[in-house]
Amino acid sequence: MLSVERVSVVFGGVQALTDVSFEVAPGEIWGIIGPNGAGKTTLFNVLSGLIAVNRGRIRFAERDITQWPSYRRALAGMSRTLQTPQVFDQITVHDNVMAALLSRMPGRLLAAAVRWPATWRAERQAVREAAILLQNSLLGSEIGTVAGDLSFGHQRVLEIYRAWAMNPQVILLDEPLSGLTESERQVVLQLVKQMAAEGRAVLWVEHHLPSVLEVAHRILVLADGQVVAVGEPAQIQQNETVRRVYLGEESPRVVSDR
In this entry, which stretches build a coiled coil (predicted)? Predict the structure, then answer.
């Protein structure tokens, strides 16, 4: 589904990423971990097209997207959340999700201007789909709430639902558990599992290591912009380099207890 081949990024002489390579299959959950400044968010910015690579290649569903702008990647089936939730804070929870659904409508700008019958049908369908997606969710009782009035945790959950509503093949989640309560965290973990069960590839930058160990199929560890280790959670727990570089500890118990 997604192939990253020897990607390198330089900012003003600083090597932010160096020869990063990995491949993600449909339905896989990849946890991306590492200390602060390791290059995790830079990697997400490269994958989503917000910054350009200096060297390397990115392939998505067998297409070379290395030079594609971010909007083209989104329309092709790649969606992303950010560390700080970015919602449309002046409209309702329902309409935030409906906006994402409408982004999938072909001929969006022309159709919206002309108001063809197909446009009306697409909008009515989006209204129904948004309600169905939200009705049994954590936000089910807040469908009509203006998004700006939601708590921080619920705004983060809304952003995940909006990204999911775009029907992506690949979804990038940047620290989705940050600032959440334990109950909200469990909701997000179930969403991550459900997205993967639907065949979507999920890449997930996260500092809450127990959650990554619980949910991820594979984990990629970055340090100083380089790949330190790649493997299944059990392998990462036993990796001495990971314990030294990421945790600053030698005991494998520390990895599971943090």
Answer: none
From residue 122, alpha-carbon distances to 60, 108, 149 in Å are 27, 10, 28
- Determine the residue type at 41: T
CB within 8 Å of 12: residues ≥ 6 apart:
none
| Domains defined along the chain, listed by start | 2-86+168-257 (3.40.50.300), 88-149 (no CATH)
Backbone angles phi, psi at 195, to 5 degrees: -60, -40
Residue in 3, 8, 142 with CA at minimum distance from that of residue 61: 3
Secondary structure, 3-state, 39-102: CHHHHHHHHCCCCCCCEEEEEECCEECCCCCHHHHHHHCEEECCCCCCCCCCCEHHHHHHHHHH
Alpha carbons 188 and 146: distance in angstroms, whole number:
21
pTM: 0.83
In the chain the beta strands, taken as DSSP E runs, fall at 2-11, 14-24, 29-33, 55-60, 63-64, 78-80, 170-174, 201-205, 218-223, 226-231
> pLDDT tens across 41-53, in order?
999 999 999 999 9
> Three-class SS of residue 177?
coil
Q: Which two tokens stand for residue 144?
A: 């009509």
pLDDT band at 255 (very low <50, low <70, confident <90, very high): very low
Does 152 have pLDDT greater than 50?
A: yes
pLDDT tens digits along 63-79: 999 999 998 999 899 99
Which pair of tokens denotes residue 58?
């990115």
Angle at 11 between CA 75 and CA 48, to 5 degrees: 10
| pLDDT score of 120 | 62
